[in-house]
Amino acid sequence: MPMDMQMCRYPMAVWAVGGGDFYFPDNVGFGIGGPRDANILILETHYDNPEMRSDIIDSSGLQLWYTPELRQYDAGVFIFGNDVTPQQVIPPGTSQFTITGVCHSNCTAEAVPAEGVNVFGTLLHAHLIGREIRVRQFRGDKQVSDFGRDNQYDFNYQQIRLFDPPRKMMPGDTIITECIYDSTSRKAVTFGGLATTEEMCVGWLLYYPKVDLSFCSSDVDRYDQLKALNSPHLDGITSSKQLSFENFTNAINSMTWSPALTEILQMAQTHSNLSYQCFSVETGKNIAIRTSPYPLSLKFAADPQPYCSPAKTDATNTSAKLFNIKLFTLCMSLIAFATALFK
């Protein structure tokens, strides 16, 4: 593959399982053919074919509509969350394990103009054991908004969520992405990766006007993780530069996972050095901070209460179960009525 294509990191359009059609706001479009626009487009398709079948023919693709009448703003897209590498580790047999990705304030300070940008949509993405995804926006040390929240994440229903009106992102803002996983169905460690049986914790932020940013993400230092776990595989190793991904995954796979060991790894997510990625569209190079501890000084806002909280009932009490079903039906009916009322 030519070097120009290897440096193609900037997403233009994204679709995932369960997604439908997508329309830009009336005043926004994705620029093509301009001096700062891409001159190479690559369609990347991920297939899940665990049975290695050869009798399936794929005819899927994208339809893009364009117009010679330029809209007021060029749209931009950048990827945020946790880097897709084997350094993302989810132990087996746990009902709730959180992976965190950080878009560092130094990155947005470098890439976002003084007047800020307008975020009009986001797509959240994990794989099969993902259960919740939250994207928090901080200004200084205070949480000011969310850029996405899915408390019932389902891999089969992934859709771009639009913000109307758009939400403002300013230079120096920090974006924290939290993905919660349930690995009780797994007997072995799940690593980060592109395969459906591996995991991801990423999202795509859609905004305008376009700036020079394609990635704003992080991952936990692999040396720090093994050090926290007191791994014997670190003999003679003092940094991640001496620790290959293969040796790291072998060390992780050799461990006998217990609730206590899982808790140690969970703590390492926010008490280790993070490697940050802040990539320029035009140069493909990292334009801001590279390594720093997790920003522990951030003050998280309280999570909103769900519309329908499950009632606490005795599973052996039939009348209680029937009441719970009626209450759930009533709650869902009210939501449906409210949705129809405000359309």
Please give a structural write-up.
The protein is of the alpha+beta class and 343 residues long. The chain has helices at residues 3-6, 105-111, 222-228, 245-253, 259-268, 318-341; strands spanning 28-29, 73-74, 76-82, 89-90, 97-103, 117-125, 130-139, 142-150, 161-169, 174-181, 190-191, 201-208, 215-220, 273-279, 291-293. The protein contains six helices and 15 strands. The strands form four sheets. A seven-stranded mixed β-sheet has the order 9-6-12-3-13-14-15. A hairpin with a 2-residue loop joins strand 7 (130-139) and strand 8 (142-150). It starts with a helix and ends with a helix. Residues 310-343 have low confidence and may be disordered.
Record keyword descriptors for this entry.
18% helix, 6 helices, alpha+beta
Mean of residue pLDDT? 84
Number of strands: 15
Which strands sit side by side, in order, in the main sheet? 9-6-12-3-13-14-15
Helix content: 10-25%
Oligomer: single chain
In short:
The chain has helices at residues 3-6, 105-111, 222-228, 245-253, 259-268, 318-341, and strands spanning 28-29, 73-74, 76-82, 89-90, 97-103, 117-125, 130-139, 142-150, 161-169, 174-181, 190-191, 201-208, 215-220, 273-279, 291-293. The protein is of the alpha+beta class and 343 residues long.
Task: Give the secondary structure arrangement, pairings included.
Blueprint (H helix, E strand, L loop, with lengths): L2 H4 L21 E2 L43 E2 L1 E7 L6 E2 L6 E7 L1 H7 L5 E9 L4 E10 L2 E9 L10 E9 L4 E8 L8 E2 L9 E8 L6 E6 L1 H7 L16 H9 L5 H10 L4 E7 L11 E3 L24 H24 L2
Parallel strand pairs: 1-2, 3-13
Antiparallel strand pairs: 3-12, 4-11, 5-10, 6-9, 6-12, 7-8, 7-10, 13-14, 14-15
